[in-house]
Task: structure prediction
Amino acid sequence: MISKRAQSIAPSATLQINAQAKELASKGFDIISFAAGEPDFDTPENIKNAARKAIDDGFTKYTATSGTLELKQAICDKFRQDNGLSYDPKNILVGNGAKQCLYNIFQTILDPDDEVIVPVPYWVSYEEMVKLAGGECVFVNLTNKSSDRTFSGHPERFSGHSEQSEESQRKFTPNNFLLSPDDLKRVLTPKTKALIINSPSNPTGAVYDLPRLEAIAKICVDNNVMVISDEIYEKLIYEGQNHSIAAIDDDIKKLAVTVSGVSKSYAMTGWRIGYCAGDESVIAAMSKLQDHQTSNPCSIAQKAALEALSGDQSTVEAMRKEFQKRRDLMGELLNGIDGINFEKPAGAFYAFVDFFKIIRNRFSNSADFCRKLLEHAHVACIPGSAFGLENYIRLSFATGEDDIREGIKRIKQFVTD
Ligand code: PMP
Ligand code: GLU
Result:
């Protein structure tokens, strides 16, 4: 009964492991979860009140598919203030989460065999989204140490490991998890349609600096390559700042679609509001697709998102500071475990930790490690293979300090036993 297309996709490891951890906890197991890709904070009260008011006011009907004009205007204001980007409401589409925006972008821009460059490690859903749109992922490994590592997923389509020249390494912020202009040039082909940039990155937390983005933008413009810039973690940055590639100049702006949303910054994962901005023709085509797919995102959630973007912003900074404290605590505790390597993430709420030495000796791969860790130590983490990179483990620090202390203690015990 199942189509080849549906059979070809893998389940979302992040959602699956999260669900498994929640199920075990509901059965009474004492589970510490570092699997969550969502803030543990409640949605701020002013945002909840806006939703209550929307219900009381009867704002419960269909809206325009692409979102209400007032929300699209607030998104334009946000892009102008935060990102230095000037857009009109006709350049904006509101979706059921950034996830739907991303899904619809690939459905809208890809023809069969078009290639999309995906820096590895990458967020779980990009690969399947590109595949479902008939495109081909061209994976670029961002680690220089890949002789020791294998790629999960589709090694036959993996384009080789990064060999950044010393010169390019000196020119840009040193970080193993950022695409270099050399990497990009190496994998471009006449079939390249788009490049995905995710900054701050899930799973690595790496944040792109402006000189690097400028060099990448120039290559994309010269080769007429679109850029899908996923900036969903833009407000959760601890070092550096967010730069939108689309803001560099008008040429790259024409080729870029910038994606963001309220899930992570405002603790609103369940409300399902994301948005994107791009060239009018792309946004109109995406909106047409969404007409036949879901119509508008929830009218009540749109009112809540309006309040999130245009109301009191102090809760965002309070949450960011709390995440930073937790990041530092997790980093400090992880440094006490022998055999792992850990680069402090500059943004998002994930530590992407190199467990190569431990996994090589005692486990078949990162999924095996995570399965046994959950089974024996009751700690849930996401294996690097979910993000296309073996031997790493993703630990979310969107969880309380006590859990971080207890969870890392259990991991330390598990790997030293
Ligand atoms: N992009 C990245 C990198 C993410 O981590 C997520 C989290 N699920 C999303 C997009 C989608 O977010 P949402 O659909 O909740 O807006
Ligand atoms: N983006 C989050 C994560 O990576 C939430 C789960 C998902 O949508 O994949 O864990």
Observations:
- Residues 12, 14-15, 37, 123-125, 202 surround glutamic acid (ligand 2) (CB under 6 Å).
